[in-house]
Write a sequence for this structure.
């Protein structure tokens, strides 16, 4: 079967890497007639070296067969250009299936273009909901799930969310909890990161004598439009980071959206408490996460990675799709108010962190399960 995989944004390279490796493993052990042919389409949503190519190199993803080069722009323009480009590829290649990941504009464009051509869509990370329709990601998720034939859910909660919207197995649909492909990736790549990443030394966070990180730091990431494209919210978060950075520095790999908006609002925190660095590669990010005192973030993927590494996480939002991490006590929704953020961080040591449940995000074999379902094509 010919499969087209659509990617475009940073987290999608990390998710697709797990499934692509599973396809390669499957192809090695099956007769040539049954092999899967994967064609990789990159929409070009992310394009800076540190948001794009570095992941293809580190994760050993194949070079995309098609690079649509859509780039940045307002939602309708960006999604519209992707739709046109993806449709052309689908008409030429006539695949048996299209795989899309997560909740970006590249996800929705891939799903919509395929569904209109009656090509079955497989949505990896289906069923996630924040129930906040002001987020572009929520719109992308809801619509992509509606358009999909195969809905691969990372958690049981995601399966429930879909059922509440009437999306259930049967009548031509497969809805299945397979686990989280990002968990597959973290298990595989964190071992490689241990050997290869030099980021702690590069940033002076580890003394030359020490085998493990020995200087304390908070790791922060920030890129959600609701936080960056609102000067009051962005200011408030930076103020909070500045306060908590008084005794323990904050390392902040800066997403280009955040950098752009800080420039637009003329926000240039002068103190040395927040250390702004360029976006880091995945192996470096995993290393920074694993050794952090705590993580502050509005990223979806980073909340889960904090949980998997057992690092307390403070989510700079009012709600999250990853409710399991909050229920477990490892993640707290702190919003954007400096007082609340500082208070939560001060009480970090007192937090009662529950045992992490097993199997909530699967067993690290989500990608294998996805391939098995796709091969059976069991609609
Ligand atoms: C997108 C996704 C978001 C995801 C995030 C992952 C949508 C609507 N949003 O947000 O769900 O969490 O990716 O990181 O799809 N830019 C650059 N260089 C790049 C990429 C972006 O400078 O390589 C700048 C541009 O100024 C651009 C801005 O970042 O306008 C935002 O990029 P965009 O892809 O529209 O959204 P993200 O914020 O990256
Ligand atoms: N990430 C990375 N370098 C960075 C910031 C994040 O490699 O500088 C990784 C992170 O470890 C996670 C993924 O990117 O695997 C999350 O992507 P992002 O936060 O951009 O998007 P989201 O998950 O919120 O959609």
């Amino acid at each position: 079967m010919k499969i087209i995989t659509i990617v475009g944004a940073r987290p999608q390279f990390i998710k697709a890497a797990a499934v692509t490796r599973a396809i390669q493993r499957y192809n090695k052990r099956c007769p040539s007639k049954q092999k899967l042919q994967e064609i990789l389409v990159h929409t070009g949503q992310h394009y800076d070296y540190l948001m794009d190519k570095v992941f293809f190199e580190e994760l050993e993803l194949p070079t995309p067969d098609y690079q649509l080069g859509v780039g940045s722009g307002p939602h309708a323009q960006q999604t519209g250009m992707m739709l046109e480009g993806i449709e052309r590829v689908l008409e030429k290649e006539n695949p048996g299936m299209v795989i899309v990941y997560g909740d970006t504009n590249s996800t929705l464009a891939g799903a919509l273009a395929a569904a209109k051509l009656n090509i079955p869509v497989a949505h990896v990370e289906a069923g996630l909901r924040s129930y906040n329709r002001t987020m572009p990601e929520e719109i992308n998720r809801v619509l992509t799930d509606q358009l999909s034939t195969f809905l691969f859910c990372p958690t049981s909660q995601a399966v429930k969310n879909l059922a509440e919207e009437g999306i259930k197995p049967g009548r031509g649909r497969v809805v299945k909890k397979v686990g989280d492909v990002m968990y597959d990736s973290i298990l595989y790549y964190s071992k490689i990161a241990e050997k290869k990443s030099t980021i702690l030394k590069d940033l002076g966070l580890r003394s030359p004598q020490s085998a493990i990180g020995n200087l304390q730091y908070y790791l922060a990431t920030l890129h959600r439009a609701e936080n960056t494209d609102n000067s009051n919210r962005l200011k408030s978060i930076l103020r909070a980071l500045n306060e908590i950075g008084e005794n323990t520095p904050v390392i902040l790999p800066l997403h280009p959206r955040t950098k752009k908006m800080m420039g637009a609002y003329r926000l240039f925190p002068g103190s040395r408490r927040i250390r702004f660095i360029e976006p880091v590669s995945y192996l470096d990010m995993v290393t920074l996460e694993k050794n952090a005192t705590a993580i502050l973030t509005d990223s979806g993927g980073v909340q889960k990675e904090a949980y998997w590494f057992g690092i307390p996480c403070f989510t700079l939002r009012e709600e999250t799709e990853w409710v399991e991490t909050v229920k477990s006590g490892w993640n707290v929704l702190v919003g954007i108010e400096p007082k609340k953020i500082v208070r939560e961080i001060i009480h970090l040591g007192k937090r009662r962190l529950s045992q992490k449940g097993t199997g909530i995000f699967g067993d690290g074999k989500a990608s294998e399960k996805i391939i098995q379902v796709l091969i059976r094509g069991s609609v």
User: Anything to note?
Assistant: The pocket of uridine-5'-diphosphate (ligand 2) is lined by residues 10-11, 14, 221, 223, 253, 279-280, 282, 285, 299-302, 305 (CB under 6 Å). The chain is about 45% helix and 15% strand. The mean pLDDT is 94.
